[in-house]
Amino acid sequence: MLVGASMMDNATRSRVLKDNPAALLALCWYWACDGVGSKDMVILPYKDSLLLFSRYLQQLVMESLGKEFDLDGNRVNQGISVYGNKGSTDQHAYIQQLREGVHNFFVTFIEVLRDRPPGHDWELEPGVTCGDYLFGMLQGTRSALYANDRESITVTVQEVTPRSVGALVALYERAVGLYASLVNINAYHQPGVEAGKKAAGEVLALQKRVLAVLNEASCKEPVEPLTLEEVAERCHAPEDIEMIYKIIEHMAANDRALIAEGDCGSPNSLKVFLGECNLDELYA
């Protein structure tokens, strides 16, 4: 993989545009999306062994290009939405809309020329192998989209090997960096990811407070079931009552909290407590 990545890295350093595959790919994205992410990127690799590649590209492109501000501090809300899966099967889920539905996308076909090792590609009918059918589906879909003025890009590799996968990864990583330069954003800064992690930490901290409140109420004699409002008040977090409801709903579904009255489908009816009193937590 590293050899393939190194070879692609060298190829994408060319200052001659037509000789730089990553620059050509980034310019295709810019043209297809008007430089503002106006269309989604649909990734269709026609090889089962590339099943996870479209999911990798979803993470790479959306995390790197989804930015609220550009390098000058202007609010631009940039990004390209990416989805897709195996072209061999998922084209049946997509092709009707891609050809005749809302034109809010461009397709990337990933074509693999070698089907299987010689002697291992069985004929389904005389003169037609499994690989031939796959080839026909790719080319037929590509032609059907083109006939209806739907844009597509085709990336072709000889075969799927560690070297070619490494080259594909390096190609798309460099293309993302070049596209980011074209639209004046920082592809290597992910404040949204950090915000999600911080928010998750705050939810877990709130859950600990909810558990402490419910434990204290469950250690009383008799046990004191609490409403959502009472839990929120004792947590000193009335503004977080919806999140407290979601926490309790999750705990109840996993047998970590008991519902004394009501049900989760009607939050205002709920009264909850813990199944047992944890004295160690109570006096910690």
Describe this structure in words.
- There is one protein chain.
- The protein has two domains: 1-189, Rossmann fold, CATH 3.40.50.10490; 193-281, Winged helix-like DNA-binding domain superfamily/Winged helix DNA-binding domain (Arc Repressor Mutant, subunit A, Orthogonal Bundle).
- It is elongated and about 80 Å long.
- The protein contains ten helices and ten strands.
- The longest helix has 28 residues, at 191-218.
- By secondary structure, the protein is α/β, with parallel strands linked by helices.
- The chain is 50% helix and 17% strand.
- Its EC number is 5.3.1.9.
Record the SSE blueprint:
Blueprint: H1 2-11, H2 21-33, E1 40-45, H3 53-65, E2 67-69, E3 75-78, E4 82-84, H4 87-100, E5 105-112, E6 123-125, E7 128-129, H5 130-147, E8 152-157, H6 162-182, H7 191-218, H8 228-234, H9 241-253, E9 258-263, E10 266-273, H10 279-282
Parallel strand pairs: 1-4, 1-5, 5-8
Antiparallel strand pairs: 2-3, 6-7, 9-10
Helix pairs in contact: 1-6, 2-6, 3-6, 4-5, 7-9
Write a brief caption for the model.
The chain has 284 residues and is α/β, with parallel strands linked by helices. The protein has helices spanning 2-11, 21-33, 53-65, 87-100, 130-147, 162-182, 191-218, 228-234, 241-253, 279-282; strands spanning 40-45, 67-69, 75-78, 82-84, 105-112, 123-125, 128-129, 152-157, 258-263, 266-273.
